[in-house]
Design brief:
This protein is an alpha/beta fold. It contains 19 helices and 22 strands. It folds into two domains: 241 residues, Rossmann fold (3-Layer(aba) Sandwich), CATH 3.40.50.300; 235 residues, Rossmann fold, CATH 3.40.50.300. A hairpin with a 2-residue loop joins strand 16 and strand 17. The longest helix is centred in the middle third of the chain and has 16 residues. The two termini are 35 Å apart. The protein binds adenosine-5'-triphosphate (ATP) and magnesium ion. Adenosine-5'-triphosphate binds next to strand 2 and helix 1.
Amino acid sequence: MIKLKLNGVSKAYGATKALSQANLDIEAGEVHVLMGSNGSGKSTLSKIVAGSVKPDSGEILLDGQPITITGPQSARSHGIAIFYQELSLAAHRTVAENISLANLPSRAGILVDQETLEERAQHYVTLFDGVTGDGFSLDAVIQDLRADQRQLVEIMKTLSTEASVIIFDEATSALDRAQVDRFFEILRTLKQQGRSIIFISHRMDEIFAIGDRVTIIRDGKIVGTKRIADTNPAEIITMMVGSHDEAGAKPAGHSAPTGAVASALSVQNLTGRGFKDISFTVRKGEILGFGGLHGQGQSAVLRALFGAIPPTSGKIDLDGKPLDPANPRQTIRHGVAYVSGDRAREGVITGRPILENVMPIHYLRDRMKLAHPVVSAGKALPALQALRTKFAGLGFPISSLSGGNQQKVVIARWLIDRPAVLLLDDPTKGIDLSAKTDLFALIRKLAEEGMGIVLYASEDAELLDNADRILVFNGGSIRRELTGAERTRYNLYQAAYEAA
Ligand SMILES: Nc1ncnc2c1ncn2[C@@H]1O[C@H](COP(=O)(O)OP(=O)(O)OP(=O)(O)O)[C@@H](O)[C@H]1O
Ligand SMILES: [Mg+2]
């Protein structure tokens, strides 16, 4: 019996077609998996069904009847609940309060009845007895809990709605094996009760363990639906990628330097928070790519190399000499540069002029000798111009620039004194296409001049188009190295989605 049906549902964010004409059937009593790479539209579809995103067009039917979902409350009244990928917990409130927050029991309509609240919450906490870990209790405050424990609370909160259609959008990403096993037992019970589960995960093993059917979504379009019993990981990956040929050996247009080229950076058995036993070499003149799903250790390794969060063990050689990543100041002076795509958090110095935003690294490398503004400008201008940065004057505040131009300023600060190694941590986040093109042309030029470059890009196309070699990260380790004609989307996905 079809419980929920989507007919031609679409949603665009500006020029981004997050979801195009989606058709989908969810049966009663099934676990229906949604599978697709980062940014393919899974959360958009989920949020539309859960009422937190309004579709541009299309129709949703529940038990064969068209329904209008005007918001989250309206979805709930139709018996639809969602586990939010980004979680929806109140950080300063307790576990019990969060679980019951969705429909707070109240006395006289206003006061929260503490006893009923705890009783209700207890039931859902008990379901996870033995796997909640240290420090977990009904009155623990959310912000004191670990990531996996918070994810469990969001699961409990979702379960407490007793909804008949429940969406779990990456509910297991922080859970350990025992927690996932328990969660799956609960899902099987829900299935037996005839509830419909939409289940999103990037873990191939989970999908085969719990799914009844899987729908693959690519670039906002539904590609197809398969019975789990009739498919296999290779077929699913092929559907996610397109065809083999489409993904096929696309030459990056550059041949990687080969043979006796000296190494710019060499890393051995680097271990730290979020990554384990990482070993690789970046040659001078090479763009080495880091690939894989978000958050598999790529950024953590780059930040460790830069000295932002030092590794716990391992060996780093820069230009053949040992480097101690104890602090960023030292690594900068030795010629390591780090550019993050997260401008707001670790890039621009807000409220200060463009000139001051270009100069800090030079000052640091030059041991803080203050230069005359004219001398500074003479150094800043060529670096900004090399990136074709658009700005009215060096004295203008950094905030007067567009996001892409702000990012160019952040990169320009590294170009005054050429670093030996440039670490790029998803550097194009939020910048437009032409700025991206400029940026990658410049990165290639810097490589050709002999710099060693490491590029982590969350967009697969950026990686496949620009990296000479790709290391695929999965679960904090390097799972595979792709060189030459192996650099295909298919191989990238296969290594990224393999059980970690
Ligand atoms: N609020 C928003 N504003 C602008 N663009 C958005 C917004 N939410 C999503 N998008 C864009 O819509 C597309 C689909 O995003 P969505 O979050 O649905 O992907 P997803 O499949 O859930 O990815 P992931 O696996 O990374 O969670 C992406 O290109 C994303 O950048
Ligand atoms: Mg998502």
